[in-house]
């Protein structure tokens, strides 16, 4: 039984202190009055949900029957440093605004990162990750250490998962961290915050079991906290989704005798779908009926089933024409608003696209090899159309360019033995759109206070966006959702006792590690209390240079004398340096940080936070230390 900690979803006060991730730009803002509800820390956000609304994001009046919601941790999580972030959505590994390709080379025991650019791919323009003793068998990317740089977890088939941590200087050629398992057949690492504690975890299969390694790292110091046995059958692909709509994440496992669905929260019970010799599966709402379906790719059979979800489970299935597939991916490939399936046709040495919504017609793409591997779908050339990467064991991997369709003459070949790649599909689980969604818990203001304004903050680099709505009710009837401005003050929800907000986080999959939703606050103006008593804001708070290599200057202006503190924290929320604390008179002030800690030792390059507390005002600014150049 997997013992997963579950947060109490009733609103409650918390005494925990957490930092909030994100680059905050300090400028004068309107005084908002008294704050009745603020969401900022890890513990604030964990009582919310990931969600999907069947009628779409623009619906302003909800029919609750069309709402699907489930616990955090699969695709959005609340890091221990605060705020909300997306998990593993970044395929631009050098932050140059182009999606890159990661391929494992079976015979060389290495992984190559091919750097994309406006000129496309070049087989000589790459980084090489080495130190593997056996062939790589699946990768995943995620910011495991919450430092703003994407990390790569690589399954080595013999008995390891290697972790290459990203940094401002890129990736080291050898692994920074390794998990050693007492079993061979290691493949398909999956990253999630499975116990909702604010740290990303690694889930990995090895031969006949699935293992859970809980963060924070370094993971080589940890033993697997839990594992699942799968009845002495060889395990392949793993996925997380809520398949019985109870609000809990379930685990689906492809294996040599079928497909198991282990029900959350503890994965102690399961059902098995008949799909012997399947090598991969993918989950999505393929027919748009409001229930998740499962497409299964057989490894040695000539038909691939879709198990259709319903209110009563997976009672119906359809068999699609296949030819001994290997791996699969789902996306709207031709932009017609319907999901399509791309898979490997191992028995014929080809890849194929099964076109939705009927899945009765398909397009075959030659691959020059009979043992193909992972399928990736993404817009690699940034022309607005989705391209398809097919990995190949024993021959080249091929990237088919989509220029209003596919043709054998319009593809790019990667070197021989470039077989394995990232196993996760890009896009939302339900419809593969480029948005993940968060729904807050309901907050009760009490019967004597109603809010009149709301304000939220976030950091959205180019290519990402955040949309936030709020609604309220006095009795049983919710108001319409109102779209809120980013960083502005919105006069909304007057006269409402119960409050709720929702967010849609959009991404082009290129700078997602820099994305964060930081905080949201709801305010009111009680009779007899002035605005000035509710919010105190130091002005013109600035840090230069940022990023820095040796020293930075922190400046701030105080309109009145006040007691304050200014401290530096690392990305895990640990205090590194007390810069100053005490009473300061009104006026301009500055202080220098020389990059040392409280013990006068130089800190390592990475992400840090400067926290200023002055009266009721508490805020952070993100600092990037790049080391001596």
UniProtKB/TrEMBL annotation:
**Which Pfam families does its entry note?**
FG-GAP_3, FlgD_ig
Q: Which residues form a coiled coil?
A: none
Keyword set includes Membrane: no
Against Gene3D superfamilies, the record matches this protein to: 2.60.40.4070, Integrin alpha, N-terminal (2.130.10.130)
Keywords from UniProt, A to Z, are: Signal
Query: In what residue span(s) does the FlgD/Vpr Ig-like domain sit?
Result: 563-610
Q: Which PANTHER family match?
A: PROPROTEIN CONVERTASE P
Protein's name in the database: FlgD/Vpr Ig-like domain-containing protein
């Amino acid at each position: 039984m997997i013992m997963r900690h579950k947060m109490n979803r009733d609103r409650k006060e918390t005494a925990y202190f957490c930092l909030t991730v994100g680059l905050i730009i300090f400028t004068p803002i309107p005084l908002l009055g008294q704050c009745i509800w603020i969401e900022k820390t890890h513990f604030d956000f964990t009582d919310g949900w990931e969600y999907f609304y069947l009628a779409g994001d623009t619906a302003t009046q909800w029919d609750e029957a069309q709402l699907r919601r489930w616990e955090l941790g699969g695709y959005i999580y609340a890091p221990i440093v605060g705020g909300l972030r997306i998990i593993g959505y970044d395929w631009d590994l050098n932050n140059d605004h182009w999606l890159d390709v990661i391929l494992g080379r079976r015979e060389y025991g290495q992984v190559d990162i091919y750097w994309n650019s406006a000129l496309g791919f070049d087989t000589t323009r790459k980084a090489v990750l080495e130190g593997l003793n056996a062939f790589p068998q699946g990768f995943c990317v995620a910011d495991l250490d919450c430092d703003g740089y994407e990390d790569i977890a690589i399954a080595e088939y013999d008995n390891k998962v290697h972790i290459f941590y990203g940094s401002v200087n890129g990736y080291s050629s050898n692994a920074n961290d390794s998990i050693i398992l007492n079993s061979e057949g290691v493949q398909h690492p999956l990253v999630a915050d499975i116990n909702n504690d604010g740290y990303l975890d690694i889930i990995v299969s090895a031969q006949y079991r699935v293992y859970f390694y809980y963060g924070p790292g370094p993971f080589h110091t940890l033993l697997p906290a839990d594992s699942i046995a799968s009845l002495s059958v060889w395990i392949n692909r793993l996925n997380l989704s809520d398949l019985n709509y109870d609000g809990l994440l379930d685990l689906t496992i492809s294996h040599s005798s079928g497909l198991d669905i282990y029900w959350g929260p503890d994965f102690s019970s399961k059902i098995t779908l008949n799909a012997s010799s399947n090598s991969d599966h993918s989950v999505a709402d393929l027919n748009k009926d409001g229930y998740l379906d499962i497409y299964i790719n057989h490894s040695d059979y000539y038909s691939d089933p879709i198990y259709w979800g319903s209110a009563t489970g997976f009672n119906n299935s359809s068999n699609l024409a296949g030819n001994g597939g290997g791996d699969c991916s789902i996306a709207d490939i031709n932009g017609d608003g319907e999901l399509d399936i791309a898979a490997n046709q191992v028995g014929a040495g080809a890849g194929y696209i099964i076109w939705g919504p009927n899945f009765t017609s398909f397009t075959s793409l030659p691959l020059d090899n009979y043992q193909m591997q992972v399928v990736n779908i993404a817009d690699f050339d940034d022309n607005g159309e989705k391209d398809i990467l097919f990995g190949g064991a024993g021959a080249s991997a091929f990237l088919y360019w989509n220029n209003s369709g596919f043709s054998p003459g319009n593809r790019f070949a990667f070197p021989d033995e470039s077989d394995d790649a990232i196993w996760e599909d890009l896009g939302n689980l339900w419809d593969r759109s480029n948005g993940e969604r968060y729904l807050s818990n309901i907050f009760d203001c009490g019967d004597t206070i109603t809010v009149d304004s709301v304000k939220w903050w976030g950091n959205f680099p180019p290519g990402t966006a955040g949309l936030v709505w709020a609604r309220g009710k006095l009795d049983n009837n919710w108001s319409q959702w109102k779209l809120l401005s980013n960083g502005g003050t919105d006069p909304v929800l007057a006269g409402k006792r119960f409050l709720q907000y929702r967010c849609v986080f959009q991404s082009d999959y290129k700078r997602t590690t820099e994305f964060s939703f930081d905080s949201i606050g709801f305010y009111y103006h009680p009779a007899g209390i002035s605005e000035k008593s509710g919010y105190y804001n130091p002005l013109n708070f600035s840090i230069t240079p940022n990023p820095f290599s040796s020293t930075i200057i922190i400046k701030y202006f105080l309109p009145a004398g006040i007691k304050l503190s200014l401290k530096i924290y690392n990305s895990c929320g640990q205090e590194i340096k007390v810069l100053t604390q005490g009473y300061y008179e009104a006026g301009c002030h500055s202080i220098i940080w020389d990059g040392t800690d409280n013990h006068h030792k130089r800190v390592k390059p990475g992400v840090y936070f400067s926290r200023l507390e002055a009266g009721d005002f508490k805020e952070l600014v993100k600092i990037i230390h790049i080391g001596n150049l």
